[in-house]
From TrEMBL:
It comes from the Bacteria. It comes from Aliidiomarina soli. Residues 10-136 form the VOC domain. PROSITE patterns: VOC. Pfam families: Glyoxalase. The lineage of its organism: Bacteria, Pseudomonadati, Pseudomonadota, Gammaproteobacteria, Alteromonadales. This is Glyoxalase.
Length: 145
């Protein structure tokens, strides 16, 4: 699932703090299906939907997120994630529910009937990093204003 990559778009690189690499392996590798790349005792590279995500052991850098109101929900800031195809997004939502992961914002369609209409969901990784995954029925609406 995590190998999806948009053609012609350069891969993005993001490094995030975690407090436990075993939990990161379980979450990113087993649950999200990200392929593990290089690693050490302090970090792991992941193929995160075609992008490079690195989980670094840095528990003192893990901070609780702030929140901003968006479409009637309190969105955690900072957060990161991926824009997926709708069927991949739905499969991930089902997988996260089945795993018993608590949603910060349950899967739903945001901006319904407006420019930028999108399916979205938010949840935390085991270290407390906020994640958003979204999908568009029409990917041309990604940057709609």
């Amino acid at each position: 699932m995590a190998h999806q990559q948009q053609t012609g778009i350069p891969p993005f690189h993001l490094a995030i703090p975690v407090d436990d690499l075993d939990k990161a392996r379980e979450f990113y590798g087993t649950l999200l299906g990200c392929e593990e790349g290089r690693s050490s005792a302090q970090w792991i590279d992941w193929n995160f939907f075609g992008h490079q995500l690195v989980t670094h052991v840095a528990p003192d850098r893990i901070l609780p997120p702030a929140h901003n109101a968006v479409d009637g929900h309190n969105v955690p800031v900072p957060h990161f994630g991926a824009v997926l195809e709708m069927d991949v997004w739905q499969a991930l939502a089902d997988k996260v529910k089945t795993a018993g992961i608590e949603f910060v914002i349950e899967p739903y369609v945001r901006f319904k009937g407006k420019p930028g209409e999108q399916a979205t969901m938010f949840f935390y990784d085991p270290a407390g990093n906020a994640m958003e995954f979204k999908a568009f029925a029409d990917i041309n609406q990604l940057f709609a204003s």
